[in-house]
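Re: the 546-residue chain
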Amino acid sequence: MLEDYNLRALVVDDLASMRSMMKSQLTSLGVSRVSEAPNAAVAINKMRAEKFDLVLLDYYLGDATDGQQLLELIRNENLIASSSLAVMVTGETNYGSVAKVAEHAPDAYLLKPFTADKLYDHLLPVIERKLGIRQPSKKTPGLKPIYDQYDAGHFEAVIALVDAYSEREGLHADTARLKGDALIQMGDYVKALKHYKRLQSHFSWAALGVARVQAHLHHTEAAMATLEKLVAEAPHYMHAIDMLAETYVAADQPEKALTILEKACANSPTVNRMRATARIAERVEDDNRAVQWACKVVEANKFAVAQDFTDHARLVRGLVKTGQLDKATAAVVRFESEVPLAKQSASIQASKGYVLAKQIEKDKAELASMPEGIKSRRLPLLAEKEARLESIVNSLSSIEHSTKEGMFISEVFIASGHDEKAIETASTAMAHGEMMPVLGDAAWQEAVKTQAVAKTRARILDGLNLLRANKTKEALILFMELVEHTPPDLTPQLLANVVTTVIALKHKGQNVNEFMPAARVALERLKDKYPNYERLPGLIESFGDS
């Protein structure tokens, strides 16, 4: 039956009886190498240690991470190859539950109970499509060669293979998706837009591809219109909802984004979606909702290897903001004791400092109304806390951190009375494109904006100096970082710098594949937003020749 495929399978189910049954069924179908996992944690460890061609995972796993979230983690961390099969097993028959698991691209789903024959009937078409037909009278490679090139990042090869496949077999959803994704990965947005528009009469998901390209080209209003129409027609299309929320944020309509994301989370609470919801709730200063969703993210993502500690910091910050100081303190202690590398995280250390600063503030308020005898006994404890806080603040001044952690570090600086340090940290984060929530008073915010603009201009000058020093590649990397948040008066110049730098690299015979997306976007933005820019005609001609 399936012997010729030599599959390595993993069965994930919290019930030993179900694991045994599925293993027995797979074995009877010719799958001789079958491993088992009783929960998400064990499954993840096994997938990190061994490559599997087939994963059967139950929707209800009996722990905090369900099959949907596990599948999301598998996709996010590339724990299985694109050509591998992921099959969801569930006892639910209603549409809502099916939509949840279908969102993260299982290749098939099975409703319990099922027989070996039913399992085979579900697996065979997917196996033959992805891995090819391996019968004595007929053999085909399937889509595996294309998936392998995609996983390797060889996107030009993907497009060539898809075109050859389409000539032989006609239009298919899998290959059409792969070509569109490859074009986007290459940054060839004009061709990608044409590709997705041609597909719209065949596949409803092609509209999402159109919107993705429009967003890449910074055609925000067009992307919003495309997505609103798509969501109206397909209200359960979760990826379209996610992108519509991102578009609302880009259009400075975060409340709309928060509303649609919370509705989507009620149906499909994926880690990425809940994280986006928590971040937007924080941005609109709805601390209760930020706590709600940050807590869910931390719990659902606890088995991930690459933790984003800003999730933990967001939860702690929200707990403090909602008056739950004791819970915030307990959360920091738990994170440091249970989560690997938490003690080395700037976010966690900033959270610890923020909680401590608020404890000190509370203690001082209480001491003000206490009798002198009690106050004298409490003052040494207060001094000890202040010394610990100062130690944390000093360490944060030198600890390596990402720009998105700047908000949490800035806040502990403000809470501990180090406004200048807070301005320095926040302005650096803004100069690297981070959106900062409201911190400090109006004068502090204005100081941050002023310094952020100055730092952005200085970084642009750094890039120009790199160009003058013939450090073209380094200059381009810097320009690519800056292109989203440069001051408006310098935007066309910076966009032009991105294009000319890529052209210069290519003329020197260097590989510019990784930079072409930025160059194409920059050129399209110049055409769209600055059609009268004096250098534009020459850039169009030179880029076409390159």
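DSSP finds 26 helices and seven strands in the chain.
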